[in-house]
Amino acid sequence: MSEPEREHAELKISGMHCATCAITIEESLSGLDHVSKVQVNFGTDSAHVEFDPSKITLKEIEQVVKSAGYEVINREATIRIGGMMCATCVQTIEAVLRALPGVVLATVNLATEKAYVTYNPSVSGIDAMKRAIEDSGYQYLGIAGEVSEEAEKIARERDLHDKLLRFSIGFAVSIPLMLLMWVPLPISIHELGYVMLVISTPVFVYVAYPIFRAAWMALRNRSLNMDVMYAMGTGVAFVASVMGTFGIILTHEFMFYDTAIMLAAFLMLGRYLETRAKGRTSEAIKNLMSLRVKTATILREGLEVEIPIEDVVVGDIVLVKPGAKVPVDGVVASGESYVDESMITGEPVPPQKTKGSRVVGGTINQNSVLTVKAEKVGKETVLSQIIQLVEDAQGSKPPVQRIADTAVTYFIPVVLVIAALAFVLWFFVLHATLLFALTALISVLVVACPCALGLATPTAVTVGVGRGAELGILIRNGEALEIAEKVTTIIFDKTGTLTKGRPEVTDLVPAGTSADTLLLFAASVEQHSQHPLAQAIVRRAKSAGVTIEPAEKFDTFGGKGVSAVVLGEEVLVGNRIFLHENGVPLPPEMEARLTAFEEEGKTAVLVGAGGTMAGMIAIADTIKPTTPEAVRRLKEKGLTVIMVTGDNHRTANAIARQIGIDRVIAEVLPQDKAVTVKSLQEKGECVAFVGDGINDAPALAQADVGIAIGSGTDVAIESGDIVLIRDDLLDAVAALELSKKVMGRIKGNIFWAFAYNTALIPVGAGVLYPFFGITLNPAIAALAMAASSVTVVSLSLLLRRYIPDAKKG
Q: Does residue 705 sit in helix, strand or coil?
């Protein structure tokens, strides 16, 4: 008995800290059946595994490593595929890719015509995937990113032209042939049959060739797809016509050459329209890709040198001229200019960039020359990360897709059974004519459409995720879309999310002096302090144009305040205890204002000068302008809105009242925010958490949907299920509205696809004929089939123009 063929895999492992880790992994893998050899190398963070791929998969092996507490690092590839027509094609390609011993995960998106593959290159490489795809009868079009946008466009246009030519010739010949059957001719029906055979055969072969080729490839791979059904339908029509022409079993009334060609032409027309529509579903990602630059001008030894963008390295000084795109992420080294960042952030007003300002690749320099020191290049740039996230999201499947996937698995066998039963029932049981029974058979085969089911979800996800990116809402995957629609409770972190995250002066209350003099005294004393409240006072003084004077004899009193001499006067800045200890009384009216400020959640800083009260400055972490509106809209949608903060209850409740939030969880440590989320989930709530993506990482991960709010171009792409590029809470509302819209469209598409097939397959089988005399002509059946797919894609394309209510302003 021959030894089973063994595969050798090299696993890259992360998380090993010592030799004991290596032993742990080795023992875990050695305990697996069908794994014959294991060697773990702690020095190279790798494991060499020899296994029988017919008995155990690489995914199962990796799962054991993960169960032991370690991670396996695999490669990922996005492969462009041509020739996919329906959901069965998706299943076929997923199956052949997953069958490769080195492939851990393979997901195919029919709408974008891409396969997203996670694989171990030591076992199965890209060449193996290419062979698997081509052996299945589909076209391997290269790795996404390797194929230029221009080459991809040319390939798509060539494919569209081929389909256009085929259905145009089909209609140009079938329509005259149909007319010939009704026009009196000076030749007999026998001679007409031979004429039609000669004219029809080359045309039928040309028009229907892609259908029959795809059907043959499917059968060769032991799978059934829609091409098998359509090949049977058109093939039966043509073969019956030939048999009728020569009088083999059938008579001349079975000569429907025109129908056979028209069937194939309608099928090609449907595929032409579907391919055109599918091409438009990815426009958003194409627009993002068009922001990339191909070259950059760098400064080397005082000279301007233009080089390919791939050759730019971190530390290079890049010259960006007016009207040019910024090629990399970096910091302005010199120059001042306005930079249009609307294509990344959605903000219409270009911010000014000066020395030290951050800029990102893809944005447009407007009016002056900038030099930029490159900090992130290639795949590390914000634009590249956004493109990658959008592509990954478009390739993901929300859980609702399982309904369609399950239906497609049984669809074609069921349709073939229905078609056969229709023929048997009409001809053998009900004794209808052979022509009628054959027509019912062909109609069922042609009208059935798994395409609409296969396109229902991926087209909507692709367009919806792309639309989100255009609106500054980055959605990580299809599952986030589906869960976001079900959210019942939304929790906001306070600092930096509901508020600006830095204190600002809100009120000036001078006592016996002017507001400017009050600011002068306070800012002059506080100018060298790093305390956030001190910096807020200094910022306010500078913005008001108040001169900040030198301070002498500066002294600090821990937890109370500071003092210094300004313009010959001793100035005290601190709390009421500090001023009281230094003999500065607090007038009753000031006491009342102080209490009012504290009830509003503000911090009051008292200022004394020359032994008397100079005034009071109220400081607070100010609420973002759109926060109250965002909260109001969420409450109108029936969501429970909660604020979580580390502040004391008094301050937290004061801010919550201003915003319009009724429920507050105060005095929560950062690490306990995730516990708060979990406790709500245990009560049956579907929780969304909105935070800044850095300090709130555990809570964002714990939530059903983590919404990370960014700050323009400085956005943490990895931080949440949904990432908001702009620092605007109305975008959080818009994200939930977009999710609801996309999921509604997916459900509508699936309903339409099921309804179409449920209604028309029985009509094609002749169910209505005994009651109403209604039958379905095969040519009309083919037209209806084409219309169903195009309708689903077109409904998804409507999402391109969708504007969430929160964005209408």
A: strand
Q: DSSP state, 548?
A: P
What is the reported pLDDT for 401?
78
| Distance between CA atoms of residues 573 and 529, nearest Å | 12
Taking only the tens place, the pLDDT of each residue in 596-644 is 887 887 888 999 998 899 999 999 888 899 999 999 999 999 999 999 9
User: Which pLDDT does position 693 carry in this prediction?
Assistant: 61
**Distance between CA atoms of residues 258 and 782, nearest Å:** 13
Q: Is 493 a catalytic residue?
A: yes
- What gap in Å lies between CA 607 and CA 594, rounded to an integer? 13
The pLDDT value given to residue 733: 96
Could you say which DSSP state residue 325 is in? B
535's CB contacts (< 8 A; 6+ apart) are 503, 526, 529
How far is 349 from 383, CA to CA, in rounded Å?
Answer: 19
3-class secondary structure, 669: coil
Cβ neighbors of 175 (< 8 A, separation 6 or more) are 258, 262
- Taking CA atoms, 558 is separated from 524, 562, 760, in Å, by 19, 8, 82
Provide the whole-model pTM.
Answer: 0.78
Half-sphere exposure of 315 (CA within 13 A, CB side): 1
- Specify the amino acid at residue 368: S
Q: Which positions of the chain have pLDDT values less than 50?
A: 1
C-alpha dihedral sign at 185, 186, 190, 191: negative
The active-site residue out of 316, 329, 493, 704 is: 493
* Residue found under tokens 């009309």: 780
105: enclosing H helix or E strand:
strand 103-109
Give the Cα separation of 664 and 680 in Å (integer).
13
List strand residue ranges (DSSP E) for 301-454, in order.
303-308, 317-320, 329-334, 337-340, 352-353, 358-359, 364-365, 370-376
3-state SS track over 594-618: HHHHHHCCCEEEEEEECCEEEEEEE
Residue in 326, 265, 268, 271 with CA at minimum distance from that of residue 295: 326
pLDDT reported for residue 697: 79
